[in-house]
Amino acid sequence: LAERIALPPRPDELHTLATAINGLLERIEQAVEREKQFTADASHELHTPLAVLKGTLEVLVRKPRTAPEYVESITLSIREIDRLTHLVDQLLLLARFDDSGMLSLRRQELSVLSSVHDVLHRLRADLGAKRIRVDVQDHATQAVVSDPFMVDLILDNVVSNAVKYSPAGATIVIELADVAGGLRCTIADAGIGIRADDLSRIFDPLYRSDALAHKHIGGTGLGLSIVAKACALLGIQLSVDSTLGQGTVFTLLFPAK
Ligand code: ADP
């Protein structure tokens, strides 16, 4: 840990400077601490499923191919590899956000409504499986200038979460409206909601609420941290409002052209 600068007795300019430097040192230490914690958590997330996979395959290799659990174990292993691949893809994307030189944005005029429909089209199997209805209300007249890949990534994560954390048969409302300063897109679900304590932490990498209702729902805890970074990069204001047991509303404010 860095040494703090001893404060001079009189509150003069030197005193102000020393206080500012001490504050800066504290922020750097907190950032290093967060980085260490993230690396430890990410290693754990990668290591645990790999150990399970190795164990499963070691048992399987000693069994005859005709054993009844053979196909089932291999199917489960493939699913676990898919989950790991997704996790690694998300970690790489997050790393690219931290090294902004690796990301080149391509801003162009785009329709948020079309992006919403693209996302819903990709999610149609999940929507069908849970019988979830999506009500898209378009009151906006403006196009926005942004990066289409990033906008797709943002909407995909937020809408996928709305589907994932909603009960079967629920309705999700996506509304687009012109407001002062730009175009507002709200994604409202009537799902499990987020505890007030968790609200400030859901954008932290790898953070997942440990609320009971949520234990059986799979995820990496990386989606919203990617969303937050993409929004910051594009000047999109992101906010969330939620009531536990009632539902969640994510709001994206795209700046006017
Ligand atoms: P995950 O892969 O766990 O969904 P995210 O980063 O996308 O990761 O979200 C972080 C956490 O925020 C989730 O684990 C969940 O606790 C909470 N969350 C996000 N979206 C919603 C939602 N629409 N309804 C309820 N909880 C949500």
Keywords:
257 residues; alpha+beta; five-stranded mixed beta sheet; two-stranded antiparallel ribbon; binds adenosine-5'-diphosphate
Give the arrangement of secondary structure elements.
Layout: H1 13-61, H2 69-98, E1 108-110, H3 112-122, H4 124-129, E2 133-139, E3 144-146, H5 148-164, E4 171-179, E5 182-189, H6 196-199, H7 223-234, E6 237-243, E7 247-255
Parallel strand pairs: 2-4
Antiparallel strand pairs: 1-3, 4-5, 5-7, 6-7
Helix pairs in contact: 1-2, 2-7, 3-5, 5-7
The structure holds adenosine-5'-diphosphate.
Written description of the protein model:
By secondary structure, the protein is of the alpha+beta class. Helices cover 50% and strands 18% of the residues. It has helices at 13-61, 69-98, 112-122, 124-129, 148-164, 196-199, 223-234, and strands at 108-110, 133-139, 144-146, 171-179, 182-189, 237-243, 247-255. The strands form two sheets. A five-stranded mixed sheet has the order 2-4-5-7-6, with helices on one face. α2 packs parallel to α7 (223-234) and α5 packs antiparallel against α7 (223-234). It starts with 12 loop residues before the first helix and ends with a strand. The site of adenosine-5'-diphosphate has 22 residues, from α5 and α7.
